[in-house]
Amino acid sequence: MKLLVTGGSGFVGSNFIRYQLATHPDVQIVNLDKLTYAGNPANLFDVENDSRYRFVKGDIADEAVVDAILSDGDFDAIINYAAESHVDRSILDPKAFLTTAVFGVHTLLEAVRKYQIPRFVQISTDEVFGAIMEGETDEFAAFEPRSPYSAAKAASDHLVASYWHTYQTPVVMTHAANMYGPYHYPEKLIPLFITNLMEGKKVPVYGDGMQIREWLHTEDHARAIDLVLRQGMLGQVYNIGTGERMPNIEITKLLLGLLEKDESSIEYVKDRPGHDRRYALNSQKIRRELGWEPQISFTNGLEQTVAWYKQHEDWWKPIKSGEFEKYYKQQYGL
Ligand code: NAD
Ligand code: TYD
pTM of whole model > 0.90? Predict the structure, then answer.
């Protein structure tokens, strides 16, 4: 199978690429990534010399770059991970979120039509459904995005669905819960808190810390996308969640325990504007129709993740100190 993975140098995409190369000997992957601040070649250092893998630096909104890759021939699918992904950054400066989500995804969809790519997989988030105060959202729930990030993702998803209905473009969409695991950029809750605690710093809990998220290990997500890619029905949407939901303060306390710190390391700070109180996905469909089940419990996954950050200070310290950007610009001549 020959795949174009976009945004493959970020957290979730790099874990997917590693999973594909490890589990499918016949797979060939081109990774198109703009290398924004979140895109990190070091996420894939271990596979960059694999002859089945090729990296192209570029923007999904750049038609010429996308053309140059796809005209090379015979791609079986595009899996689109490329997006600006951090809610707090979207509140400060939404423009890049919209450009990638709308013009970038539009460029990819047009390319799918032009080169008759058999499948386009759009990776999206439970955040498009907005805050769910009770119950769960299934695949038919209405979008009610409340941050510029989730509004941009919802815009992409609407565009993707419109291509299915209008042009019968062969698309499949997914909405995943909050992910965690190795190579997670240390601006998000779990990696920020782990690395802050390792550095002897405090952890900033927004508001009362009672906001609830559902947690999914990135390796379980890679397994789910593998199934959606190979067996998912075109035109369908699949939620990917675990049902493991908990307030941020509970995760904070688990991390304090794992890193042998006490509650004096907590700093309650001003809440995020428009902060969604709760997300909760109904993920019965992917279990029932594709036989997917998460394999990593949150307790084990969190422990493994803490261990990974302890063993990979060389990965996250340069990011936190700003050194990494200088390094890869030199290394890659960017
Ligand atoms: P990330 O920020 O770590 O990675 C995004 C990657 O996309 C980076 O490598 C970046 O350089 C690249 N990129 C951004 N704009 C681009 C553009 N215009 N052209 C090419 N590349 C571009 O984000 P992530 O956490 O890995 O998320 C990946 C995808 O998964 C996103 O679409 C996100 O919405 C979705 N998702 C993430 C989570 C989560 O918890 N992290 C949950 C559900 C869905
Ligand atoms: P985050 O990791 O940014 O993911 P998302 O906003 O996409 O869910 O945040 C997860 C939760 O943690 C969210 O409720 C905001 C909260 N949070 C904090 O309390 N402090 C922090 O420093 C960060 C980054 C997040």
Answer: yes
